[in-house]
Amino acid sequence: MKKIIAGTVMATALLTALPSSWPALDGHAYAAAKKNTAASHYIVNVNGNLMTVRSLHRSGTVLLAGSDMAKLFSADYRYDPKHQYYEIRRTSPNIRIVLQTGKKAALVNGKSISLSVAPQRFGQELYVDAKQIAALLGGQWKAEAGVAIVSTSGSFRPFRETWQVNGSTATIHGLVLGQTSFYSVNDVAAAFGATVHVDKKTSMVKVKKGNRTIIFNPFSYVLNAGGKKTSLPTAPFIQNGVPYINLSAIVYALGGEIEEQERFIATSGFIKGTSIHPQWINQNTLLISRPDEASSLLLDIRSRTALRSINEMDLTLSPDGKKAAYVDENGHLFVIDLVSNTVQQIGEDDEVKTDLVWSSDGRSLYCIYGSNNEAVAVVALDNGTITKIIDDKVKYKTDLRLSPDGTKLLYTVANEGKTNYTDDQRTDVDSIDTSGTDPQLILVDLSSPTKQPTPLTSSSDNKVDSAFLSNYDIVYVSATDDDMSPPSLKMIRNGVEQTLLDKQNIIDMAVVKSRIYVVVEANGLYTIRCFDPSTKSWKIIGRTKHEITSIAPSPYDDQITVTMATDGGENVSLLRHGSWMNLTK
């Protein structure tokens, strides 16, 4: 079967070949009266690709070259000199058309049919009625605005799709030519609050939104957006007065961005740049950190837009999602009311405070306290009073956690190594003894009068991502410095340690109430798994080939946010009902 032989043709070159009058290319319309036969060329939009075909004007009727028609439909074309007939044959659909010069009848798969216009010969070429031949070859031919629109596979198929535009539902209509979809510019413009004007004389389409103007026409692949020209992947066209175009092209030209798989359009584009540490304010809103701007954002996951920007980072969200705390570079503690957007400094203490943890009632904050992280303290938010709970002078406490009922604290501590010197003045280090410095989990019972730190572990492994379950069991990720020994997930119940997941490449772990979530990497595939301690069973929640760096399950429903590594930094994505969507770029 012959293939379509045509390349991309620039609009200026095409326009120079067009006649001064514009008959519709359907084989029935008439141009200015012409007694003499004349051959010319016309633009044809075939499934979104601009091509030219030879045309014949005889007594006002416009016919198209039969061999060119065959090429458009990937059909064979031949002339039988013995029987003096022309044959167009296509295998899909299986069709054989036999034509003769001047006869208004044709054989189609051996059956005689009437032709609306008799084929005419000019030179060595037979010229035919394009509209009827296109239909016989299994397609559709229609002309408007000086350009013939051709579908080589079936008729133009109208469709309507439901899209989310900034989180709101919108219906966008379109047409399918062949296998290519084109979308109504009118519908897209309405979603953006833009206007559309089609010049009846020139067929120029102008879309205007505020100070942004977009111009294109059906004779060209070029789209001009605010003076910047871009190439369209398919040529636009006009049908019944409505312009149709590639959806992504018009969305980006209007200043928006699109996620086609999710059918989501952000009219102002997506939030870009590194985004980390997502925290759930409620089931529709996240608090995320923006290290590139040293700020934070309240992100609406429905519209994927920023509700508010906060000029601080490393915020710790309160249990009710209404407030967030942070410590500035001077050691001062602040609380932001996310509802009123007001900021309050808590006391005047300027000592180092890290690992902020809210009490369940939101009235106080626990923290690792001191320049060497040697104490655990609680700050009363009503008056700024600081009370040291643990002041054992053991340095480098980290990973402070509070049990769900607020009665127990958990943290990790590693003792300092012993430094041996060669002289009494301790100016020359001989060696450092690191024995006994392995990090250990420490539990503090706040209901006890003594509040003594109680070691829970004594093993030599590293212990990270520790967390309380709702039944007060403790889980953590156990890792070693040996690259050949992957981490394990362990749980401590009533002082007894057990392994829940052994020797897996655990990237991150998080706990929501009684559920344990882990991200495990294997062979470049990142899998999110959930463990239910009551049934002791694992369930796969989702998978992706993109590199997940952290996980934050929602406490409100089954949604899970993750951070993913990209070439431009980390972004925040959402896993919902097994489907992924990018919240930031």
From TrEMBL:
Residues 1-24 form the signal peptide. Pfam families: Cu_amine_oxidN1. Residues 47-143, 165-260 form the Copper amine oxidase-like N-terminal domain. Keywords: Signal. InterPro entries: 6-blade_b-propeller_TolB-like (IPR011042), Cu_amine_oxidase-like_N (IPR012854), Mao_N_sf (IPR036582). The keyword Signal applies. The keyword Signal applies. This is Copper amine oxidase-like N-terminal domain-containing protein. It comes from Geobacillus kaustophilus (strain HTA426).
